Amino acid sequence: MDYESPLKSPxxxxxxxxxxENFDTFLLDHAAAEKKASGMALSxxxxxxxxxxxxxAMAELAVEEMVHFREVVKxxxxxxxxxxxxxxxxxxxxxxxxxxxxxxLYLLDRLLTAGVIEARGAERFGLIAKALPEGELKTFYxxxxxxxxxxxxxxxxxxxxxxxxxxxxxxxxxILTFESQAVAELPIRAAxx
Length: 193
Ligand SMILES: [Fe+2]
Ligand SMILES: [Fe+2]
Hints:
Helix content is about 75%, strand content about 0%. By secondary structure, the chain is an all-alpha fold.
């Protein structure tokens, strides 16, 4: 990790071990996670078409996440695997309970929950990149990590466009604390979350 992670607790070693032991399962979930990340960025564009900076940032993010999806799909197909149907992600569902009603609060929470999900994803891609033996997969996960490890800052930067620093910081800390507990409570799976 060549940046300061904002997360309040690291992922357990048991998570990395589980992924390495079930890498095909992890790859299928990784592809789904990239597709969902791209879809989430597009849904932000649909929800906030009048926010110019947000629209451009989300359009760029949607493309970047879709490129990741394409690359994971290539790996999956080279291994003779087939994509599955999308499944609900218990981690993302847990984080989404943080979303509050009211257009201002909802926008702030959408940006900051997206930020924390990105931060956890980047941490975990970094753990996989570190744990894999030298080879094409390790190189791929290194490049994914480099691409993902600043996405959380993109969402914090957008929040700063629309909200005061003290309001962002207070809510960000609440979300980080909640996220850390959610990770500790959810079962360990061969999945990004
Ligand atoms: Fe991605
Ligand atoms: Fe991302």
